[in-house]
Amino acid sequence: MHRLPLFRSHYNYHYSIVRRLHGGDVLYTTSAVTSAVPSASSSSYIVVGNGPIGSSIAKHLVQLLASANNNNKTTPKVTIIDGKGVGVGSSHADKARLIRTFDAEGDEEWTTWNIRSLQSFPAIEKMWHKSSLLEESTNKNKSFFTQCGALLMGDEEFVRRSKNAADKATMMLSSSSLSSSSAAAAGKLPPTTTNKTSSSSTSTVATPIRMSPIECQQKWPFLKPKVGCDMALFDSSGGIIDPNAFIEAQNTITTAIAAAAGTNSRNVTTIDDDNDNNNKNYQEATTVPPNTVEFGIISDEVLKVGRNRVELASSTRKILCADTVIVCGGSYTKPLLKNSGYYCCEKKKNSSSSKWETIRSSKRIVALLEVSADFVQGILKDMPSIKYAFDLDLDLNTNPNDEKMMPIPERADAATPTAGEQSRVEAGSVYILPPVWYPGEREGEKGKWFIKIGGGDNKWIDTKNEIDDWLFNNNKSGNDDDDDEDDDGNTTLSVSRLEDIVRSLMPTIQFDSVESMACVTTVDSNSSPQSNGIVVDDDHIEDGIIAISACQGKGAGPAEAISQDIAYKIYHNQINQ
Ligand SMILES: Cc1cc2nc3c(=O)[nH]c(=O)nc-3n(C[C@H](O)[C@H](O)[C@H](O)COP(=O)(O)OP(=O)(O)OC[C@H]3O[C@@H](n4cnc5c(N)ncnc54)[C@H](O)[C@@H]3O)c2cc1C
């Protein structure tokens, strides 16, 4: 099992692929597509789960396969299988997820994924729009991202940590981009990349700025944070995504890339590795016949994964085969592996560490506070998303021997927060989203504007039954969390406490009603300094199985960049590098 490190060594090369993809030439140009991507080791992939991560991994795999110098006799194929349509739960089933150019845990890698994803959104939306035009007559622009800005509020140390990570990530990204440009200028990158470097296809995002309590008060007079928790960091380029629209965008683009790969004639640039000098020489492009990639989405539940195959739940219990099965089922990944005989929760033979021991699902509850259209168009018009750390010193280790409690690490070194830091920050903070429109669920039912708030300590569950029970039997009631102290004596953030926090932070806003929603995240609380919470498990690669956990309660916004790195590593067989 490997925790995904940021793509440092391949970053320049890999970045060039992103730029080309987002430039749209793969899809829409009538001229040839130029590629320097070597062949894949697998030619067929099944991706279990069409969430933000699975849909994005599939897109990048199809892109890599479509660009490859493919000498395979069989047609490369990527198939997504997703159970949403047949009642499988997910972490993204909602209207909004926030993203910004910083990270609440001050993690540099997550900050980088956030920035890269934000930079890519305009191009993805544009490609989605163009791809949709092939099928729809509507000319309405497609969008999944709303730029409303993002605010982080808390004590000085909390804010400074995120700011430092944002500054470092921005510097790292701009030096990567600079060295990419100079490599291109020196003829070290493929011709298409050289052309593209002059007209950037990723958008620029702002670096977050520090704001004093007085500046915040002037800009958002309706906010009244606790004294001592009123230092702030503001990112004007952050905002919220509609996760379902994002997935639709990724699926539509993937379909179009696959379709275009079969019809466009391609120029392939070959690479000569000059290992002694660690240089790559790019040779003249030559025209080759069209490269075909098949892409499809199946709506079904995967009951089991096995050697190069999956078993579907549909009445025939159909078996589908592929060279590689990539499990991106969010909280359901761990139960699926276990149900398939991959004893991910037990210790590996001859190993002191347990697989998936520190990765668990967490019961989350959100409160939805209804606001009127007058407030939405009035005082709340410029409301950003808010991460409000009101009590980071909360001691949640009331019962450390309780197996439902994950040990919360000592306050992590501010410079190197670990995956385990997620629990501490979640416990002492909330996120609040600006008004989001929720259409009525039933026909004739009117939609409403809601301010959404969530946060609080992680409460662990593991089995499919526990996850289903929480998602489907508690949905909209939040009964399990009605008290501030649960059955085990642990502090929790109940719906009423979440509501109180919003009311005290925004005392002048009138809320017309309160609803709640049960949801689930997957969290890796590994406290090793190397761990960033993204896990790409290839322990069963001999069976062609790779399992991914990439949530940490913040995996939807940066899914594009995280998945790009994961897809690249899977494609090039480099998971353990
Ligand atoms: C309340 C809440 C608030 C959040 N807020 C934010 C936020 O503000 N910003 C942010 O970036 N992130 C946020 N997140 C986290 C984010 O939603 C997740 O990180 C993200 O959805 C993870 O994506 P995923 O693709 O890994 O998993 P999921 O979103 O869970 O998708 C997995 C998919 O796999 C399918 N699946 C699972 N098992 C099977 C099976 N056996 N067969 C077939 N299909 C299967 C599921 O149905 C689902 O469609 C929040 C999460 C919650 C719960």
Please, could you describe this protein's structure?
It is a single chain. This protein is an alpha+beta fold. It has a domain at 2-144 and 238-351 and 529-571: FAD/NAD(P)-binding domain. Helix content is 31%, strand content 23%. The structure holds flavin-adenine dinucleotide. Flavin-adenine dinucleotide is lined by residues 48-54, 81-84, 88, 90-92, 97-99, 301-302, 328-330, 332, 336, 364, 366, 431, 454, 519-521, 550-551, 553-557.
Annotation keywords:
single chain; 577 residues; alpha+beta; FAD/NAD(P)-binding domain; 7-stranded mixed sheet; 14 helices; globular; FAD dependent oxidoreductase domain-containing protein; FAD
Layout: helices, strands, pairs:
Elements: E1 2-3, H1 11-23, H2 25-28, E2 33-35, E3 44-48, H3 52-67, E4 77-82, E5 97-99, H4 108-133, E6 145-147, E7 150-154, H5 156-185, H6 191-198, E8 209-211, H7 213-219, E9 231-235, E10 239-241, H8 243-263, E11 266-268, E12 271-274, E13 279-282, E14 286-288, E15 294-299, E16 302-306, E17 309-312, E18 319-321, E19 324-327, H9 333-339, E20 359-371, H10 373-377, E21 385-389, H11 421-427, E22 429-438, E23 448-455, E24 460-461, H12 464-473, H13 495-505, E25 514-524, E26 535-540, E27 545-549, H14 559-571
Parallel strand pairs: 2-11, 3-4, 3-19, 4-15, 7-21, 19-27
Antiparallel strand pairs: 1-26, 5-10, 6-10, 7-9, 8-9, 11-14, 12-13, 16-17, 17-18, 20-23, 20-24, 20-25, 21-22, 22-23, 26-27
Bound molecules: flavin-adenine dinucleotide.
